[in-house]
Amino acid sequence: MPSFDEVLKEAGEFGRFQKRVFFLLSQTGITFSSLFASVVFLGRAPDNFWCRIPGAAELSERCGWTLEEERNFTVLPLHLGNESVSGECERLDVTWDTSVSCSSPLAHHGNRSTGSLPLATCHDGWVYEQPHSSIVSEYDLVCGNAWMLDLSQAILNLGFLTGAFILGYAADRYGRILIYLLSCLGVGICGIIVAFSPNFTVFLIFRFLQGMFGKGTWMTGYVIVTEIVGSDQRIVGIVIQIFFTLGIMILPGIAYLIPTWQGIQLAISLPNFLFLLYYWVVPESPRWLLTRKKGEKALKIMRNIAKHNGKFLSPHYSEITISNEEVSNPSFLDLVRTPQMRKSTLILMYAWFTSALIYQGLVMRLGIIGGNLYLDFFISGAVELPAAFLIIVTIDRIGRRLPFAMSNIVAGIACLITAFLPEDISWLKMTVATLGRLSITIAFEVVYLVNSELYPTTLRNFGVSLCSSLCDLGGIIAPFLLFRLAAIWLELPLIIFSILAAVCGLLVLLLPETKGIPLPETVEDVEQL
């Protein structure tokens, strides 16, 4: 009986069928990256807001105040009395009397300076010039509640983390395409509920669920793509990352055209329903079917692939070699039971954690400096495009391990140099920091490919999902690490990033090279790498 790779070679390793499936599933990268980075636009800080005074609605109605007049009467006296108080988080703790004069509601306080009047924190909410422009103004995430915006992103990352475990396990047990389609449905439904959440608690619950299902679409789609192509074409695992970057570049355009956060949320969520149409055009992974002792279904799909690729399988292909491994439900112990698997798992988990922590840390540090938010965000995404092309040029020529190690080491060196460059040569400081961003992006993209190549088919989806869950942990820690350390010394986070990256670069040199080697089918195959 021929092996799966022998049958795939005869059916076509990257023919018309695989190119179509690759293109269709790659669209998931656009929607997933939009969800990943959406907080930048969903959580924009409102331009103008101020404390709502007690009885503000009644006062405005009685006096016929416009929004601007209300602001002038309530905030301007406060600012004149104490320039350090903006009126955003504090208000005058006085009784507003309009019975005498609507034009001087503070007249009954006599000649006392407003600077001597008592202050109080905002207890009656806030007034926003654009009340529905972001979740900040929608749910009053300002002043003492500002930390809740960070919580919303942490909750999304927690959803990613949960999805990596639950849906990664489910995809190995129940099938890739089934979990992919259910995840797409989940992202769409949860995205709609998020857009119309009546309160912040409901928003957080379904933001968490959308993150969980979003991770299911991205990871499962990625695994399907890498499992239906030959070993020489697994570079598609890098090319699919370009669609993630495209999503980052498209997002500011969506946000520019749609003025409300609900509109942006719907725009990035509704396309997931279109992916349900893939039920009729994307088959189950034949590699996965073989591991579940479903050789006839796998062979039927392979014949269909050959037909679409303009090829024909030999009639004597009545069966395909099936893994002798017992079909079992994957667990973490399976990833660390044998020496090679254990070494790969621990190194890959550290690589995922480091890549995510440094990537997000550098994005926040470079800050998308001032100016036009939409244009700056677009440019920051465009910086990532060369990473994929550099990988494509080098990875099939010199292998996976060396670019993986060098990208981490270069990122570490760039962070270290940036930390000690003086501020007066800002152009050089920015250039070196951008080199660090480019290098860690390369490392981030290579780890996807290497991770999928170092696990057997029976454990691939679970292994990739589990290891990549450390990416989400890094994403949760990054803002806290960056801002806490920067409070001690502005450049201290860069020193930590440089150490983490350099250690990662040395560790990945211990991984086996997978260039041109067929995907391992069993744990025994992995141990022989």
UniProtKB/TrEMBL annotation:
Every Major facilitator superfamily (MFS) profile domain range: 110-516
Protein keywords: Cell membrane, Glycoprotein, Ion transport, Membrane, Mitochondrion, Nucleus, Transmembrane, Transmembrane helix, Transport
Subcellular location: Apical cell membrane; Basolateral cell membrane; Mitochondrion membrane; Nucleus outer membrane
Annotated TM spans: 21-42, 151-170, 177-196, 202-224, 236-258, 264-282, 347-368, 374-395, 402-421, 427-450, 462-482, 488-511
Family annotation (Pfam families): Sugar_tr
GO biological process: dopamine transport; histamine transport; monoatomic ion transport; norepinephrine transport; serotonin transport
NCBIfam families per UniProt: 2A0119
Similarity comment text for this entry: Belongs to the major facilitator (TC 2.A.1) superfamily. Organic cation transporter (TC 2.A.1.19) family.
Name assigned to this protein: Solute carrier family 22 member 3
Organism field: Grantiella picta
